[in-house]
Structure to design on (180 residues):
């Protein structure tokens, strides 16, 4: 019975209608974040800062990027998405961070991966400077607001996570200053 209720809620919320209705009172809603290139498990693992996302992972652990207003986050493989329950503002924050890193990656060799990002809120130069400071940094270039990251798969993964964190911080700061 609980599964039917969840599926019914997903059908109602698939178009984002639930998020729009609840935005006024910022009540928890069920939302869906569609992914184009990331697998749901990879998106979860970036958010939870773990090598692989496993059942029982701590949603709000010390290294997690998941906002405190998110109560549930589930990878949904059939349509390559994440199911999210939380406040609409927090779901929007997650969607923006995942959109930043949901881009195709190019493998140059067994050891080298290239990823391109186009930050919308965090300055591209800030993302580039921060990622260069990571241990075992790869190559970082910025051109016309696009950040190119090339290095080991592990370094690119850490750089993508850092870019997500910077994007979320910039969005929060912009939201707080707009509210004043």
């Amino acid at each position: 019975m609980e599964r039917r209720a969840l599926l019914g809620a997903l059908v109602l919320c698939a178009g984002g209608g639930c998020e729009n209705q609840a935005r006024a009172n910022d009540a928890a809603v069920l939302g869906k974040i569609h992914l184009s290139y990331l697998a749901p498990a990879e998106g979860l693992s970036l958010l939870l800062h773990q090598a692989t996302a496993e059942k029982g992972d701590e949603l709000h652990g010390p290294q997690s990027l998941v906002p405190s207003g998110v109560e549930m986050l589930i990878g949904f493989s059939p349509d390559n998405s994440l199911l999210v329950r939380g406040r609409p503002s927090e779901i929007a924050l997650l969607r923006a961070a995942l959109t930043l890193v949901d881009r195709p990656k190019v493998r140059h060799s067994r050891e080298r991966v290239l990823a391109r990002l186009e930050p919308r809120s965090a300055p591209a130069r800030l993302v580039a400077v921060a990622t260069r400071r990571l241990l075992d940094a790869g190559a970082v270039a910025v051109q016309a607001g696009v950040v190119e990251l090339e290095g080991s798969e592990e370094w690119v993964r850490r750089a993508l996570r850092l870019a997500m964190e910077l994007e979320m911080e910039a969005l929060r700061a912009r939201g707080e200053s707009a509210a004043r």
Q: What stands out?
A: The helical segments are 2-13, 17-22, 40-48, 88-101, 124-132, 153-179. DSSP finds six helices and seven strands in the chain. Residues 2-94 form one domain. The chain has two domains: 2-94, 105-179.
